[in-house]
Amino acid sequence: xxxxxxRERYCIIGNPVEHSLSPLIMNYLFQKYGLNAYYYKARxxxxxxxxxxxxxxxxGVKGFNVTMPHKKxxxxxxxxxxxxxxxxxxxxxxxxxxxxMIGFNTDWIGVKGSLELHGVRKVENALIIGAGGAAxxxxxxxxxxxxxxxxxxxxxxxxxxxIKHEFKDLKVEIKPLLLSKENLRRTTDDVxxxxxxxxxxxxxxxxxxxxxxxxxxxxxxxxxxxxxxxKLLMDAEKAGANTIDGLWMLIIQxxxxxxxxxxxxxxxxxxxxxxxxxxxx
Length: 281
Description:
Elements: E1 8-14, H1 22-32, E2 37-43, H2 49-59, E3 63-66, E4 80-81, H3 83-88, E5 93-97, E6 100-104, H4 107-117, E7 126-129, H5 133-145, E8 149-154, H6 157-166, E9 173-178, H7 181-188, E10 193-196, E11 219-222, H8 231-238, E12 242-244, H9 246-262, H10 268-278
Parallel strand pairs: 1-2, 1-3, 4-6, 7-8, 7-10, 8-9, 10-11, 11-12
Antiparallel strand pairs: 3-5, 5-6
Helix pairs in contact: 1-10, 4-5, 4-9
């Protein structure tokens, strides 16, 4: 009698991870494509990150996702980085290849794919609000489709300047600015795309962009996906702008991670329908 093959294991590590949608998404995909695998979440505090990676290697976990606060600190515990994660200096997907931990960044693909899905394949000037890992992924994505100016507005000006230095090799001009009403007014007048790369608006009715600064025909993308329609997106709709919610980014980056692990490219539209039917806002 042939012994039953052990199920392959995948997981997400971070702190917190309780509300992560990754297990819902990945286990659906494993089932849909008939793969003998399962995905779980593991809360890992910062001082235990190295031990967690060693445990993952020992257990033979085939791959894992990385969420806050480990997307940058995970780099020192990996054997290899792909080109995007090397430049972005953040990893959200890791593949275990015979004990070698290879890091990838699929967040930027989530940004680029979300824009393309909504017909945005070229961008002139753009505004990114925030200067963390999500903003870095957005800058890298826009660097592939923009030859205009990318404004980075942040509460801590030095962090915005840091983004500029990190991406000095991108063929695009990056202008760091301090978050202020005047800088928002001036930049929103000059761009065709606004991306909120901060948590502002997550489970709260707040927006960093005054509604009077929004206008018709521009694109407004919010990386927040709970609620699906944030205050920023509602204000943008009322102004006649085109809106892109954060669930698209989540789904597209997850589909890319699944492809890295399995070689299978999921249907993101089908995946979106499944997730929408199975989550509570």
